[in-house]
Amino acid sequence: MKLQNDFESLVKYCQSKMNIPIVNLQILEMLDKEEADASKAKEANEIDEDTYADIMEGIKTNKHWTNILKELSVSLSIEFDFLIVFQKKFSSSFKSTVGEIPIWFPNISDDSSVAPFKDVVATLEPSVKRASNFFHIFYRSNGTINATRKKEIVNAIAEKIIAGCTT
């Protein structure tokens, strides 16, 4: 759950700063500047200790994951340009109310002349009722890469993200 919360925080930060959930050098520079600004504000007694601690905790978490992605870009020779999209952004527009559409049978004269569509035929329904905590990390390569290289990159990203949970 911490990983999900950390990445949601990072995505929210990127969205608020650049209107897109992309982690890159600009985000890292913004975090560095905000860290310096918070320190100056604390020294000038413009913010109290608790507020400063909250600000720094958020910056620390966002910088942690941003630096991990930066390290990955260097070690894998890919662009430091990662798009993060949560699974919930891929929700279907399929309406579960399709089965409630009334179907009229003109050849039947009693109360059963109208029935919900789902009683007439099997209808498709969305099966996932809860929000997913999965997220996707998209990377930008430097040129064309083959399937073996793609697998190496994906595995390295997964390993580094998992390792980043313990640091």
Explain this structure.
The structure is a single chain. With 167 residues, the protein is mostly helical. It has a domain at 2-91 and 141-164. It contains 5 helices and 5 strands, in the order αβααβββαβα. Helix 2 (25-43) packs antiparallel against helix 3 (49-76). The two termini are 15 Å apart.
Structural class: mainly alpha
Shape descriptor: elongated
Helix content: 40-55%
Strand count, sense and barrel status of the largest sheet are: 3 strands, antiparallel
Radius of gyration: 24 Å
Low-confidence stretches: none
The share of residues in extended strands comes to: 5-15%
Helix/strand order: HEHHEEEHEH
Question: Tally of extended strands?
Answer: 5
Spatial strand arrangement across the major sheet = 1-2-5
Q: Quickly count the helices.
A: 5
Average pLDDT, rounded to a whole number, is 87
First-to-last CA distance: 15 Å
Compile the SSE list and pairings.
Elements: H1 2-18, E1 22-24, H2 25-43, H3 49-76, E2 81-86, E3 102-104, E4 114-116, H4 117-120, E5 135-138, H5 147-164
Antiparallel strand pairs: 1-2, 2-5, 3-4
Helix pairs in contact: 1-3, 2-3, 3-5
Care to give the gist of this entry?
The protein has 5 helices and 5 strands; from the N terminus they run αβααβββαβα. With about 170 residues, the protein is mainly alpha-helical. It has a domain of about 110 residues.
What keyword list fits this structure?
51% helix; 5 helices; two-stranded antiparallel sheet; mainly alpha; 167 residues
